[in-house]
Amino acid sequence: MSQKRLVSGIQPTGKMHLGNYLGAVSNWVHLQDEYESYFLVVDLHSLTTVYEDPERLRQDKLDLAIDILAAGVDPAKCALFHQSDVPEHSELHLYLSMITPLQWLMRVPTYKGKIEEIKGKDLDTYGFLGYPVLMAADILLYKAQVVPVGQDQLPHLELAREIARRFNSLYKKPVFPMIEEKLTQYPVLPGLDGRKMSKSYQNTIPVSATPDEMQKLVMSMLTDPNRKRRTDPGNPYICPVFAYHKIYNSPTRQEEVSVGCQTAEIGCVDCKKECASLLIDSLGSFRARRAELMKDTSQVSAILTKGAEKARNITTQTIREVKQQIGL
Ligand code: SF4
């Protein structure tokens, strides 16, 4: 039986952090066995916010591809590529932008949210408002049946469905199939300051950090703010460090840490040291694969080129069909 086709992307806006790793990329490692998978480093999306720094974008997109491969995404099982190496993404984005009402974009909840979140950038641009159309193009171009999404991305997926329905109805042909969402349940990791881990908050733990750097970052993490002295009992359920224990530690040890914190038997320094060592160990094979890839990054470029070629076998056909329908 043929596999269903799946598309998913990740934006290169700095080093991949633990939140990206757990939320998207480690999931891809499982999905690549189950679906005909197309994984995109969505560099065109980065241009919606990082358009003024070409050198940084060049570096970020290569770093991210290396991290994805080091995480275990296998080019023999999927296509991994840079979005901009498949020019049909930009082309379909343009065609879809012609039929997308402005109000649909204005009401996307993440639009206002992101403007609030990303400070110090002029995001009052045509491209930034239109990024959900680019996202729709990313999915529809492959006629993907399955798209893995987190709860917060559901409005984007719904918009992609609305655009597909509008296109199919305007041109009286079911060019784009309906998309199935694959809701991904993943643990939400707090950042160093307790807020959601995000590059915009500068509170991330990069997966490519060395063990020493990782140890320092974990030791700098916020804890229960009411636990001022070593002898004060703490509340692990409001402590970001304990959120890591819940993911990386065994259930028995989690219970011991929780009780130890609430009775002040464990101090925060020891608790953080244990957390850091769990994290460092869990990324051992990632670091080894990454070091191997870093010896010759031309292999990574070759993988990306091959991935884009595989993608274009599909995207050029879709564009041909779309152009015929719209009269070009
Ligand atoms: S002992 Fe651990 S869980 Fe408790 S407040 Fe300190 S760092 Fe957090």
Commentary on this structure:
There is one protein chain. Helix 1 links the parallel strand 1 (5-10) and strand 2. This protein is mostly helical and 328 residues long. Strands 1-2-3 form a 3-stranded parallel β-sheet. A two-stranded parallel ribbon has the order 4-5. It folds into 2 domains: 5-189 and 296-326, 3-Layer(aba) Sandwich (Rossmann fold), CATH 3.40.50; 208-282, Tyrosyl-Transfer RNA Synthetase (Orthogonal Bundle), CATH 1.10.240. The protein is globular, with a radius of gyration of 22 Å. Helix content is 55%, strand content 8%. It starts with a strand and ends with a helix. Helix 4 runs parallel beside helix 15 (297-326) and helix 11 (240-248) crosses helix 13. It has helices at residues 18-34, 43-46, 54-70, 88-99, 102-106, 109-117, 126-129, 131-140, 154-170, 211-219, 240-248, 251-262, 268-282, 284-294, 297-326; strands at 5-10, 36-41, 78-82, 146-149, 180-183. Residues 223-224, 227, 234, 236, 239, 241-242, 261, 266, 268, 271-272 line the site of iron/sulfur cluster.
In a nutshell, what does this entry contain?
With 328 residues, the chain is mainly alpha-helical. Helices cover 55% and strands 8% of the residues. It has two domains: 216 residues, HUPs (Rossmann fold, 3-Layer(aba) Sandwich), CATH 3.40.50; 75 residues, Orthogonal Bundle (Tyrosyl-Transfer RNA Synthetase).
Write the topology of this structure.
Blueprint: E1 5-10, H1 18-34, E2 36-41, H2 43-46, H3 54-70, E3 78-82, H4 88-99, H5 102-106, H6 109-117, H7 126-129, H8 131-140, E4 146-149, H9 154-170, E5 180-183, H10 211-219, H11 240-248, H12 251-262, H13 268-282, H14 284-294, H15 297-326
Parallel strand pairs: 1-2, 2-3, 4-5
Helix pairs in contact: 3-14, 3-15, 4-8, 4-15, 8-9, 10-13, 11-13
The structure holds iron/sulfur cluster.
